[in-house]
Amino acid sequence: MSSRPRLLGVACVAGACAALVAPALGAPGASARPAEFEAQPVEPAGGGGGGGGNDADAVDPPEQSSSGEGSAVGTVNALSIRNPFCDEGGLGRAQRRNCRVTGTPEGRYPTSNYGFDFHIDTGVDNISGNFASMIAQIAGAIWTFCLFVLSIVLTVVGWAFALSPFTDNGAMREIDGGLEGFYGAFTEPWLVVAMVAIGAWALYRGIVRREVTATVAGTVLSVALMLVALWVIHDPRATIGTLTGFVNEGALAVLAAPQSGSVANPVGDYGEAVDSVFSDMTLPGFAVLNFSNVDWALSDAEPELLETSNRYACADAAYLGQLPPGKADQIIFGTEHTGGVAGIGGSDHITCENLGEIAPAPRTNAEIWLRNSPGSLARERLWDDHTDDAPYSSYFAIQGEGGAATRLPLTLLIALGLIGGILLLAWIAMRLFMQTAVAFVLVLLTPLALFLPAFGERGRRGFSVWGSTLLGALASKLVYAALLSVVLLGTTVIGSLVSGQGGIGATMAFLAMAALWWAVFLYRNTLLSFVSVSREADEGQGRLGSALGLY
């Protein structure tokens, strides 16, 4: 028998680990300066960035991860994992754009764009400036690390829901071949022995012990259970594959229903939900850490700042890399040239004129910064041109030397909140991978489970345990989909309280979200034991499973 089916079982668990390791292998990319991007535009890569939107043709910028004055390091995004939901039909236009830009439905801006700015004078004789710069860089590293992990975990959650060896044609061929080989080499030669044993035991109980009724019932049940196992062995696609297909559709419906109240387009509803949730999880933190006034940062974009940013935005290679195919070349090589911008890399063929006709304007002041990479010319000019003007001088104060001491404790507080959400999402993803692996192994054990009913009452109970555990592992996706759906809905509801009458501040809303994430994570076993249909409930017997008689 081929060893490939065995390897696939290991792959179910290894998938999560591979997803976490793969980003570390990403190659370095282009810098943000024009002189470095004329050779080749930056290629879009995966990784989420916040801010959903319904703008149909919006093409929003992404960029590099780095915090510092005059520095833009890294690629458009170091992550290269594509969320499988991006390959599903039904995503909205904004989410399809996000998938093209970052490889995730929630990725309006690449994660690296969320690196904040700092403008601190340093030097051999400037000890206080050097110390403040070091503190700011530590805070920036912590913040960026949390966002990259969050982006990875959201993508792994997508893979956890998408991973289904029982509905994949290639995997099902391997499973079918493996089961048939196992049956032919081991089960079939011993099947006659099992049937003889059942008959002999029936004669003994019926004639010697005179338990005719119990004997007939037990024999019929044993044969019926063995026929079920034979059906799974000879046609896993029609049995396990069909059941898994129903479960997958149900899981998507459970994810979508609380978000829109409809199950007509579950993929699209899920994409919009994670898009909104990622924005709620990341945008307030960026606003708190990059600006001294959070309410101003999340208010409508100011025309004066937008005009400055528009003039230099397309001098960022990472930004050009996110435009629709061909648009970046048209800007760089002059087919859309309407007048160069003096002083950009010494080149007069790069134009930022009429930028609003190419990409939509940012919706908030914070997004004016987010569409360009830290250290890019656009961000530098925003500081240089407006930092001495009121009221912008007070809004940008945290980016200076005096804001370094404030940023570090704020970063630690926000990171603590994000860790709760990261742990919760990672736990859901890992449980899904584990249940998939359990189901996979149990299906491959079907040729052995076939013999259990031949061993009388205890054997039939063992077969029942095998079957109920398999059904629970397959159906567990519904349970985790329901839990994830509640978390997404709760986060969205809290985020919606930021605006409108009686609304709360963005910082308070983020802290309330963090409390929700930590509460669900810390009480996950209690919640899981209540709704679990699998034998793997962490705390005692699942109440729903017990009510259904699955234990």
Give descriptors for this structure:
551 residues, mainly alpha, 2 domains, 21 helices, 62% helix, 0% strand, elongated, disordered N terminus
Structure write-up:
This protein has 21 helices and no strands. With 551 residues, it is mainly alpha-helical. It folds into two domains: 4-165 and 268-409, no CATH class; 197-266 and 414-547, no CATH class. α4 (127-162) runs parallel beside α16 (404-444) and α6 packs across α18 (456-496). The chain is elongated. The relative contact order is 0.14.
What structural class is derived from the secondary structure elements? mainly alpha
Give the overall shape. elongated
What is the ordering of alpha helices and beta strands? HHHHHHHHHHHHHHHHHHHHH
The overall pLDDT, averaged over residues, is 73
Number of domains: 2
Radius of gyration in whole Å, from Cα? 29 Å
Q: Assign a percent range to the helix content.
A: 55-70%
The tally of helices reads: 21
Strand content: under 5%
Question: What are the low-pLDDT stretches, counting only 5+ consecutive residues below 50?
Answer: 1-78, 335-350, 534-551
Count of DSSP strands: 0
What's the N-to-C terminus distance? 33 Å
- Main sheet attributes: strand count, strand direction, barrel closure: none
Q: How are the SSEs ordered, and which strands pair?
A:
Blueprint: H1 4-21, H2 34-37, H3 93-102, H4 127-162, H5 169-208, H6 212-234, H7 237-260, H8 266-290, H9 294-297, H10 303-312, H11 317-320, H12 327-332, H13 365-370, H14 377-386, H15 392-395, H16 404-444, H17 446-449, H18 456-496, H19 506-522, H20 524-531, H21 543-547
